[in-house]
Amino acid sequence: MRKLFPILLVLALMLTAAPFLAANAAPRAAALAKVDLVMWHQEGEPTMKSLGIQKIFDDWAAKNAPGSTLTLVAKDTEALRTEFQAAALAGSGGPDIMWTVADHAGPFTAAGLIQPVDDMVDLKLFIPTIANITKIGGKSYGIPLQAGNHLMLYYNKSLVKTAPATFAELVTVAQQLAKDNAKVDKFAPFAYNQTESFWVFPFAHGFKATEFAEDNKTPALDSEGWVKAYQLIYDLKFKDKVEPSECDYDCADGGFKAGTVAMTLNGDWALGGDKGYIALLGDKLGIAPWPTVEGGGQPSPFVAGKYIMFPNTTKGDKLAVASAFAKFVTTDQEAVLSFTVINGRLPALLTALKDDKVAKDPVLAATSKALVTGVAQPVQPEMRCVFDAVTTETRALMNDSVKPADAAKAAQDSAVKCIKDLK
Question: Of 50, 137, 269, 297, which one is least surrounded by beta carbons within 10 A?
Fold first, then answer.
């Protein structure tokens, strides 16, 4: 009986204390409401599938918002912008949450279509440059998912042993490749998207050109640096003849994947997935920063990443669930690593960036080296006018219907008029 007494005493004390402990225990977090969310994204269906976001949400929701669903809707980057604005104007048909690029923050905030995220997550957890890109008027409008979205030089090591250090060297290598592969159907030693201005800005930055004057609103597209940039891309095509006569994104990307393009300029988004560069080229894939331009200038690609943004129309239970999931998927280190590393992407979360899975990965080490050469992408509304003006003149230049100096002047005039019309 003596042996049983201490045990009985403890049980008695536990039973006596149970009501007190229950009353004073820390309350369990209540499950979030059951909601059906729609996320628009511009990754493309195959890429989003490889990222595994649907499973990440489903597993998270099962524990935190039982019964909630997430429907992923793929949109082209430009279509996401225009269709979201149209849906907002119509008052229906839009998403509850968006996975998109930094430059959408400018037009979306100018139109008052998205809400700040400062109170949803601690933005100090992310790479400062990346976190600050979507900061407009003192408020942040995007939660960083990853760092990057930058253009790099990719090369096929079976054709090019080492990355050319300068564009002059690239021309020499490319011309020799053209001779060596003259009988290969559709072979191009060098190709990139000749139709979009995103690929032109790094050239301009190499010649110390900028998009805006010091006020960050007035275009500065007719400087000597811009003329030199246009001259270089003109010469690569018409003088040096190292690239196809016509080439858009699919031409350059598809050719590199097929092995008929030896060198290309493309973004980190091209790395991952079953049909990405990592899977298709394996150890033949070379990655490097842009070659320098005449005078030693380093072309600097725009750097941003991908962000989660919230429409103003997302409120109540939907906002509670959407913002809670956004916080999880952007700040949980294992979750972040799961959709970045395997797809050759750099995490924006500082702790994940320091993880060995990133630091010791050869692809990510190479993309990191290219990342540090970049500059933060402007997202102010005026930047849309600059993008469009440079795109128009780039296409004219690639059609040989305008000369470099005239292209710079026309781009400046077009951007100034466009910005004036914005007001």
Answer: 137
